[in-house]
Automatic annotation (TrEMBL):
Alphabetical list of PANTHER family matching this protein: HISTIDINOL-PHOSPHATE AMINOTRANSFERASE, HISTIDINOL-PHOSPHATE AMINOTRANSFERASE-RELATED
Family: Belongs to the class-II pyridoxal-phosphate-dependent aminotransferase family. Histidinol-phosphate aminotransferase subfamily.
InterPro entries assigned to the protein according to its UniProt record, in alphabetical order: Aminotrans_II_pyridoxalP_BS (IPR001917), Aminotransferase_I/II_large (IPR004839), HisP_aminotrans (IPR005861), PyrdxlP-dep_Trfase (IPR015424), PyrdxlP-dep_Trfase_major (IPR015421), PyrdxlP-dep_Trfase_small (IPR015422)
Catalyzed reactions per annotation: L-histidinol phosphate + 2-oxoglutarate = 3-(imidazol-4-yl)-2-oxopropyl phosphate + L-glutamate
Listed name of the protein: Histidinol-phosphate aminotransferase
Cofactor(s) this protein requires: pyridoxal 5'-phosphate
Top-level taxonomy: Bacteria, Bacillati, Actinomycetota, Actinomycetes, Propionibacteriales
Gene: hisC
UniProt entry tagged with the keyword Ion transport: no
Pathway: Amino-acid biosynthesis; L-histidine biosynthesis; L-histidine from 5-phospho-alpha-D-ribose 1-diphosphate: step 7/9
GO molecular function: histidinol-phosphate transaminase activity
Length: 370
């Protein structure tokens, strides 16, 4: 037996994660789709006061049901759907990664199947692996949209218990039209297995104006789950707070698998304080959208293939040797992500200064390689 005595299928596997390099060595970090704008002094002071208040009662366990936080998250989500969202429809955990792992713990498992459509977020197969859920990946069309007929056929054949649909998708930026979500909810709910459909809206706030949130479909489909996060548009990646909206029975089911007191008192207090500053923290979303659209235009003018993006990142290519381009950019102090289909690279949208640095580094790398 090799050491340590790890599960067979985990041996030799690298932990998931993009390189984390010191900011003084690599000043332009555009690799993990963070919001580049930090909080204001007033917001920092409010968050610090909330953390300090929570510190006074750290000898006690936190509110296991995070009632106050669920109320505020329900209020926040209600702005995205005419039917509104009530606290019983909300669940939260330490990042939307944990929310989705809990969904797989509750609704996946041995003898059960999870489906998504590649290229897509590379953590999904890891949730499946870690919960012993069978993993099936369909393919997206060449423009990274869902091929609806193929998707319907796959769902009918595989009868998945969980379908994971990011909208916008990572790493391509592709948003899903509501009729695609509706069709998959109907197909997945209409068989003996009765699967749930998880629309992962981690980047939902960045979508273009003509794309509604899947939250609007919640009153029509009890098997629909919409996940969100404070990590991206909300500028709170360090906070680790992800959440979902779904039928109350789905939230109740997750309570069976969650660890007790999984959301610390500090997390709850800090998330509540951050939500009080929602207008400020979300205040750069429009600017980031404009910066994204300008980046797409610039890259296309330069002759690259670029996927349409509803997110705060852009997938572009195609490169015979994408690693060399990634390395060339890194050598010039710009870190992007080597991910997605072969030949493509993904860049997050940063400040105007960061994007100028990216454009100039890419032009430079190209000139050198020409
Ligand atoms: N979904 C998608 C599509 C993502 O890209 C990410 C983060 N990169 C997440 C979920 C998880 O984010 P978090 O755990 O920070 O909420």
């Amino acid at each position: 037996m090799s050491w340590p005595p790890l599960r067979e299928e985990l041996r030799g596997i690298e932990p998931y994660g993009a390189p984390q390099l010191p900011i003084d060595l690599v000043p332009v970090q555009l690799n993990v789709n963070e919001n580049p704008y930090g909080p204001s002094a007033a917001c920092i002071a409010d968050i610090a006061a909330a953390a300090s208040e929570a510190a006074a009662t750290l000898n006690r366990y936190p509110d296991r049901e995070f009632v106050a936080l669920r109320q505020v998250l329900a209020w926040y989500l209600s702005s995205d759907t005419p039917a509104g969202i009530v606290p019983e429809q909300v669940w939260a955990a330490n990042g939307s990664n944990e929310v989705m792992l809990q969904l797989l713990q509750a609704f996946g498992g041995p003898g059960r199947t999870a489906v998504s459509f590649a290229p897509t977020y590379s953590m999904y197969p890891e949730y499946a692996r870690d919960t012993h859920t069978r993993w099936v990946a369909g393919r997206r069309a060449d423009d990274f949209a869902l091929d609806l007929d193929a998707a319907r056929d796959l769902v009918k054949t595989e009868q998945p218990n969980v379908i994971l649909l990011p909208s916008p998708n990572n790493p391509t930026g592709t948003a899903l039209p509501p009729d695609a979500v509706a069709m998959l909810c109907e197909t997945a709910g209409g068989n003996d297995v009765s699967g749930i459909v998880v629309v992962d809206e981690a980047y939902g706030e960045f979508r273009r104006a003509d794309v509604p949130s899947a939250l609007e479909l919640l009153p029509s489909y009890r098997n629909l789950v919409v996940t969100r996060t404070m990590s991206k548009a909300f500028a709170g990646a360090g906070l680790r707070l992800g959440y979902l909206a779904a039928a109350p029975e789905i939230c109740d089911a997750i309570r069976i698998v969650r660890l007790p007191y999984h959301l610390s008192a500090v997390t709850q207090a800090v998330a509540l304080a951050a939500l009080r500053h929602a207008p400020e923290l979300l205040g750069k979303v429009d600017e980031l959208r404009r910066e994204r659209d300008a980046l797409v235009v610039w890259l296309r003018d330069e002759g690259y293939d670029v996927a349409d993006s509803d997110a705060n990142f852009v997938l572009f290519g195609r490169f015979a040797d994408r690693h060399a381009v990634w390395q060339g950019l890194l050598d010039r102090g710009v870190l992007i992500r080597e991910t997605g289909p072969d030949g493509w690279l993904r860049v997050s949208v940063g400040t105007p200064e960061e994007m100028a640095a990216f454009r100039s580094a890419l032009t430079d790398v190209n000139g050198e390689r020409a």
